[in-house]
């Protein structure tokens, strides 16, 4: 069973996405509530909800739009797909999820939703992009390479 899961082509992507959602939801909750008002219970409750929301946004909107942009854009065809594809998916996902979460949590200055949204989005994007490219993706790939070498699929 473990060998099948490790060698499934979508497992790495789901683990990377779950790790990113976990780190970013913790980061945003700590930023919003502060270290003293942060609750692990809140995070454990909200993580599955956010993960499902991000998964739906990614499958329905982000990946199809980014795929279309890659097929139609001359500029994007000159950039490595390993960099541009996840970068654009992160940007689209964070744009949509931050708009929804800013609105639902009322984390905005009254009558200034758009300005508060831009501040929240930029604060998250500044962390999400380097976190993905320099921490999460390399560590998950290294972990799965190690697991695959120790659990050969026959």
TrEMBL record:
Keywords: Membrane, Transmembrane, Transmembrane helix. The chain crosses the membrane at residues 12-33, 45-66, 87-105, 125-144. Pfam families: DUF2798. It comes from the Bacteria. This is DUF2798 domain-containing protein. The lineage of its organism: Bacteria, Bacillati, Bacillota, Bacilli, Lactobacillales.
């Amino acid at each position: 069973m473990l060998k099948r899961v490790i060698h499934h082509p979508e497992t790495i992507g789901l683990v990377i996405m779950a790790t990113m959602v976990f780190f970013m939801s913790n980061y945003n909750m700590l930023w919003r509530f502060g270290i003293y008002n942060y609750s692990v219970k809140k995070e454990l409750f909200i993580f599955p909800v956010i993960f499902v929301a991000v998964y739906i946004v990614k499958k329905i909107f982000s990946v199809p739009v980014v795929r279309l942009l890659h097929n139609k854009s001359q500029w994007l065809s000159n950039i490595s797909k390993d960099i541009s594809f996840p970068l654009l998916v992160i940007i689209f996902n964070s744009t949509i999820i931050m708009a929804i979460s800013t609105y639902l949590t009322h984390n905005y200055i009254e009558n200034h939703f758009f300005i508060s949204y831009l501040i929240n989005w930029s604060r998250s994007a500044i962390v999400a992009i380097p976190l993905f490219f320099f921490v999460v993706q390399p560590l998950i790939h290294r972990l799965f390479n190690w697991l695959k070498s120790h659990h050969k699929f026959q």
